[in-house]
Amino acid sequence: MFNDDEICCHHPDDCRPDHGRDVWPRILHSSMLIRRRAGSARYMNALHEMCGRNAWVLFYLNKQEKAGRAIYQKDIEQSLSMTRSGVSKLIKNMEDNNIIERRAVEGDARLKQIILTDGGRQLSELAAHEKENMEADICAGFSDEELEQFVSYLDRLIANISACGYSGKGGENRNGCD
Asked: FRET label pair with 87: which of 27, 71, 73, 99, CA 20 to 30 Å apart?
């Protein structure tokens, strides 16, 4: 596993082969810069202290709650391509930090609905504001058409990786893609 400073490129041109389409270093480089940008925000730092690196779960919970949907652990696992054990640890951490609470579902004591606390909602709103600022920084200089095309490319990239069995759950290649 690389840390941010071990990634081969400090500038995309440093890793460009002759054909000029070496995508992987650009993905690593942009990922590193986005993580650094996210880590520089005050609210995101507070969120990381409380939720670890999976602060996106809080955004997901807030979005689903606003849509009136009940959320369970399995929903988080499936929607965010996380393992059951990883989500369990994250939920426990968020519960210990009074960000979420788990409530038994009537008729099935084993099933627990995950609900944001008032503090979790407040933290999520502050972090959402910072996320909007970060996205504005990232998207500066792109037209709406370019952003729409870029998002479609990202969706295709995610689909390609997922089709090879790289779901984020253990990292193994389950479908034999090279």
From this structure: 27
Helical ranges in 12-143 per DSSP H? 23-39, 42-51, 56-66, 73-79, 84-96, 118-139
| Distance of alpha carbon 64 from alpha carbon 115, whole angstroms | 10
10-55 pLDDT, tens digit per residue, is 454 554 444 567 888 888 898 888 878 777 766 666 666 666 556 7
Which DSSP symbol is given to 111? Answer: E
Q: Which of these, 133, 135, 121, lies nearest to 58 by C-alpha position?
A: 121
Q: Which residues of 112-132 are buried (b: 16+ CB within 10 A; e: fewer)?
A: ebbebeeebbebbebbeebbe
CA distances to 100, 102, 116, 123, 146 from 119, in Å: 8, 15, 8, 6, 37
Q: Calculate mean pLDDT across residues 73-98.
A: 89
Supply 178's token pair.
């090279």
**The token pair that represents 119 in the structure block:** 């503090």
What token pair was written down for 151? 């998002």
Token pair for 4:
């941010």
